[in-house]
Amino acid sequence: MSNLGIGATCVAVMIVLIAVRVHIGLAMAVVAIAGIALIASPNAAFSVLQMVPYEFAANWEFSAVPMFILMGAIAFRAGMTSELFNAGRLWLGRLPGGLAIATNVGSAGFAAAAGTSLAASIAMGRIAIPEMLKAKYDRGLATGVVAAAGTLGVMIPPSIPMIIYGYFAEVSVAKMFMAGILPGLLTAFAFGLMIVIRCIRNPNLAPRIADDIDPAEKWRALARTWPLPVIIVVVIGSIYTGLASPTESAAVGAAAALVIAILQRRMTWPIFKSALLETIESSASLFFIIIGAILLTRLMAFSDLPEFTSNMVIGWGLSREMLVIGTAFIFLLLGCILDPVGLMLLALPVFLPIFIAADIDLIWFGILFIKYIEIGLITPPIGMNIFALKSITPDIPIGVIFRGTAWFFVMEIVVLILMIAFPQITLWLPSMMG
After folding, report:
1. Is the residue at 10 inside a domain?
2. Residue 76 has pLDDT above 80, yes or no
3. Nearest to 145 by CA among 419, 414, 412
4. Does the residue 17 lie in any domain?
5. Which of helix, strand or coil describes residue 214?
């Protein structure tokens, strides 16, 4: 069998292993090592297995990942997230779907600090869903807004998937962060607008809340939300002004979260210990998948499969727009069956050469790629955010949660179309960096 045939066979075997629920990191690693052994030699495969984990672990850029995870863990466990939702509840409660809008705002804020979607969905789900159900909100709307707004964690910087993409695509992580701001805010605005329109048309979805709250209490609640905006401004500001690299800004953000929690007298040893353990567990799980993906990338290089695929696609003579739209359909389909990080790391070795050969801006493609991941988080049958919410709301059927996310899925597609039609939505802020 040719090297190309071995590479294609290995990819097919890997997909089968993932389909039968083998851990995606293990599936990628085992297939990659076996493929390299067949193409080159067992000694070459062993050598790659020796080098890749060390080279990855010693990579300075990836130290940002545990730092951002730690920042989000401290922010959540110190109560900064609940303060943001509480202020939103007091200020927006009388609007149509006010609690859902407050949840959308709170999720966007926490997701930006956490850098991951699952953390944002679980954190806001524990806080906001009981409040909305108590106010007799529709269960689909209550769970759907948490699941969908939590996806903003991969789009609004800092974002861990953006760091991973920047590493594999060899593009500026700082520019990726800047490029994600406007699409993230546009998505949050689209969610909020859709909630208002739906609740005006059908008031039974979200009964109005009586506005008998002391205005002074509203202002006090708003004043207590300062920690999360400060952390985000510190992270993004340090990158944009050049005072810190994206890697350094992660440590700056984690330190800022810790200092603020200490100043607010919310940091205790048990809280700090829990945040550290959460960081270690999340980082180890993520890094195991990334190592498998890097091994798969090495197999791709040995087999020449990416070059063959890119030459074949370029030979079709597709326009840039058609290539992007076709890729969108492929990723949305794969997003139905693969977890987001796994999809990202599985697809990048194959699709990046195609877009490089087509001379497509990799920053723009990267943000579109992140948007595909975002949509996959609420797409059945996997929809990781949906299953994360199910774990904390066992009394709500999974079908109700999927139904609740359907309107948000539509708004995600609308925003995706706008991003493809108007690339400057993504590229304007990075272009300001020079």
Report:
1. no
2. no
3. 412
4. no
5. coil
Concatenating the DSSP letter of every residue in 83-111 gives HHHHHHHHHHTTSTTHHHHHHHHHHHHHH
Asked if residue 281 is part of any domain, the answer here is no
pTM: 0.75
3-state secondary structure 124-158: HHHHHHHHHHHCCCCHHHHHHHHHHHHHHHHCCCC
Sole residue written with tokens 């939702």: 85
* pLDDT value of residue 53: 82
Q: What domain count does the chain have?
A: 1
The whole domain housing 167 covers 59-267+304-432
Q: How far is CA 200 from CA 96, 197, 300, in A?
A: 6, 5, 53
| Burial class of 57 by CB neighbour count within 10 A (0 to 12, 13 to 18, 19+) | exposed
- In three-state secondary structure terms, 305 is helix
Largest interatomic CA distance in the chain: 76
* Cα–Cα dist 26/88, whole Å: 43
The two three-digit tokens of residue 70, written as one number: 């730690």
42 lies in some domain: no
CA atoms within 13 A on the CB side of 302: 26
